Amino acid sequence: MPKIPLHDLHLKYGAKMVFYGGFTVPQEFIGLVKEHQVVREHAGLFDVSHMGRVIIRGKDAYPFVEKLITNHVPSYLERKAVYGLLLNEQGYPLDDLIAYPLTKNSILLVINAINAVIDLEWMKRIQQQESFQVDIEVVTLSMGQFALQGPLSEVALQSVITKKVELSELRFMKFVETKHQGHWLMISRSGYTGSDGFEIYADVDTLRNLWNALVLFPEVKPCGLGARDTLRFEAALPLYSHELSDSISPLETGVTFAIKWDKDFIGKTILESKKNEPLKRKLVGIELLDRGVVRAEYPVLKDDKIIGHITTGYLLPGHPKGLAMALLDAPHFEMGTTVTVMMRMTPLKAVVRDMIFMTKQYKR
């Protein structure tokens, strides 16, 4: 069973390991609730090296990635990352990703672990079909990835990087390339938790050194993918296979901010033809009125008829009621609609609400 490079360190710090995305990864260290609170109040350190990392190189790198994803790709001079969707020809997401324009001829794509094989096959297919002059290099095993998230992340990271950069000047979705102990290091002010923080890219040995330095801070705690999921849910960030999939239109899920209609991309024609049509279903927030916790795929009913399903649900730290995101049919996705969620065999009363479960803490 494949292991992420710092597997031994995770065991040293007491991680409970699980299999996900082709790797054995840390699920939790000190408990999901405590790790969730650490990120909101202090700083949590996540090893997310299981994510796929692909560098597109060549004279057609920019036109190739522009064709692949729904968002505009910034100039490498802007030092700005961008979130986008990778769609099939029918306008449905194969994945969502982050693109980092590194040079005038190279772009780093960070993709979901569970979709890495499919994404790579898709990229190669489009490259061959349209004769783009690019090389597609998978660097998942040679380039690791951390996420340091929480209000104390900047102080902790600033104090350990050896070639000083002013992290206070780095704004959300901006990144900088620098050196740590003589080795390449990329720091992006971004993350998947709704808190302020950074995503950090480097070779495995450099990340090991950074991990060992960061955990010396009493305020920095190792965190697992369990808390990463509760945190991204509280921030209402979509997860592929839950709120995004090749059977859920991006028009239904509220990620249209990442779709730029003034550019060409795969899937645009069909998707654009539907953008002004009334939605047949929509992703919304759900708040339980009865005590309970609902999970993905639990059915949602109105007048004893199934009108949709839960995509993600939790009882979050600091929230007195169970919350969820759900994909509901029209007209039942209107705010204030009362519904029933089936928690296994138990019906729970609930109400449709917005998905603002917290105020995001990004440094814009």
Overview of this structure, please?
This protein has 3 domains: 7-51 and 141-234, Gyrase A, domain 2 (2-Layer Sandwich), CATH 3.30.1360.120; 52-138, 2-Layer Sandwich (Alpha-Beta Plaits); 278-353, Elongation Factor Tu (Ef-tu), domain 3, CATH 2.40.30.110. The chain is α+β, with helices and mostly antiparallel strands and 364 residues long. It starts with 6 loop residues before the first helix and ends in an 11-residue tail after the last strand. The protein is globular, with a radius of gyration of 21 Å. 22% of the residues lie in helices and 34% in strands. Helix 2 (32-41) packs across helix 7 (225-234).
Distance between the termini: 40 Å
> How does the major sheet shape up?
6 strands, mixed
Mean pLDDT: 96
Supply the number of structural domains: 3
Class of secondary structure makeup:
alpha+beta
The low-confidence runs, each spanning 5 or more residues with pLDDT under 50, are: none
**Helix content percent band:** 10-25%
Number of helices: 9
In spatial order, strands of the major sheet run 10-11-12-9-3-13
CATH superfamily of the largest domain, by name, is: Probable tRNA modification gtpase trme, domain 1
CATH class category of the largest domain: Alpha Beta
Shape: globular
| Alpha carbon gyration radius | 21 Å
**Proportion of strand residues:** 25-35%
CATH fold title of the largest domain: Gyrase A, domain 2
The name of the CATH architecture of the largest domain is 2-Layer Sandwich
The ordered H/E elements are HEEHEEHEEEHEEHEEEHEHHHEEEEEE
Annotation, overall tally of beta strands: 19
